[in-house]
Amino acid sequence: MKLLNILLSAFRALIRNKLRTLLTMLGMIIGVGAVIIMLAIGEGAQNAVKESINSLGSNILILMPGSFNQGGVHMGAGTRSSLTEDDINAIARECPSVKYITPVVTTGGQIVYGNMNWATRTMGVNDQYLDIRQWKMGSGDFFTDQDVKGGAKVCILGQTVVDNLFGDGTDPIEQTIRIRNKPFRVVGVLSKKGQNSEGQDQDDVILAPYTTVQKRLSFNQWIGQAMISCVSADGINSATKEITEVLRMRHKTLPQDPDDFTIRNQADIASMRNQTNETMTILLACIAGVSLLVGGIGIMNIMLVSVTERTREIGIRMSVGAKGSDILTQFLIEALVLSLFGGTIGIILGISGSKILTKAFEWQTYITTFSVMLSFGFSIVIGIFFGWYPARKAAMLDPIDALRYE
């Protein structure tokens, strides 16, 4: 029997029971669609992490104080007061792998302009902050090194702050706002940055000289953390080593004692977040994969029913010259058609579902060629795996017994 005739015969057999064929494919449709959607959500989450890390800037290191230990209880990284302005200057001076460095001193409070007010965070940084973050000015100018040294009461506004304080269209440049009742002159506005992967609005911020924030807002001379940009991506490890040596020497840390500071790089941050995302993606994909198995079992069940219903037909085909391999091929093709058609519709459903999730819930999804090919490949494997036994059973029927079957 020629392959074309086998294909036509398989299609005719499936078309005779349209509703049963559709219901059988439904398991494959749901399974493949669910796998694509889950993988798209996982891939989108990982891309969001990458975008968030990249939004910090290039070749970034985050330097934080170490953990505060009280009565044997460690309070976590950043809780110990161990970083000073002199430490930051020493790193800039003695670490050749460090290109830019800025202290970061953060405080919160109410911001007032005229009869408008807004609660946001104020970050104290130096004039290298924009170079580290690769952030551009939207209008005006950034404060200078002289402003930092002099503790000038100047500030830079994020776009969200501008929208809430100057919603009437007033140009914020050279206007005076009050940060916790202290007057600050606005000298610039940052370009829009958007949200990071954690949903935090990066534009909801005010930047001011860290010396001013320390003296007039936080009243704390310790440095909360420092952002560092290395000379290159290859220089991250050498910069980490240099910073460690400088700080251990300055803090007179004994060789057997642990560091009283913490250094994190983008790779560490991305790795921690991606591990969580990958675990969730695998879990969701496994749950969706159960639907594929259920769909495959449905195909096997229907094919077994089909073999039983068409036993006499199989006997007639064999009696007129059809070989066991022809019968095997026909039923195997029927199973493949069910799985492939279901898989194809499932792929379309998965792609559409991912786009709907993005528009309706603003979830970042990303469909890769790999996920589509993987789903399509699983459709083929499931069709062959679950279709083989019924096809083999049909091929092994005795023609005489098949003709006698009622």
Description of the molecule:
This protein has 406 residues and is an alpha+beta fold. The chain folds into two domains: 183 residues, no CATH class; 126 residues, no CATH class. It contains 13 helices and twelve strands. Strands 4-5-10-7-9-8 form a six-stranded mixed beta barrel. Strands 2-3 form a two-stranded antiparallel sheet. Strand 8 and strand 9 form a beta hairpin. The longest helix is centred in the C-terminal third of the chain and has 44 residues. The chain is elongated, with a radius of gyration of 33 Å. The protein starts with a helix and ends with a helix. About 2% of the residues have low confidence.
Topology, pairings included?
Blueprint (H helix, E strand, L loop, with lengths): L2 H14 L1 H39 L3 E6 L3 E2 L2 E2 L10 H10 L3 E16 L2 E10 L3 H5 L3 E4 L4 H6 L3 E4 L1 H7 L10 E4 L2 E9 L14 E5 H9 L6 E6 L5 H15 L10 E5 H44 L1 H9 L4 H38 L7 H27 L3 H6 L2
Parallel strand pairs: 5-10, 7-9
Antiparallel strand pairs: 1-11, 1-12, 2-3, 4-5, 4-8, 4-11, 6-9, 7-10, 8-9
Helix pairs in contact: 1-11, 2-9, 2-11, 2-12, 3-8, 9-11, 9-12, 11-12
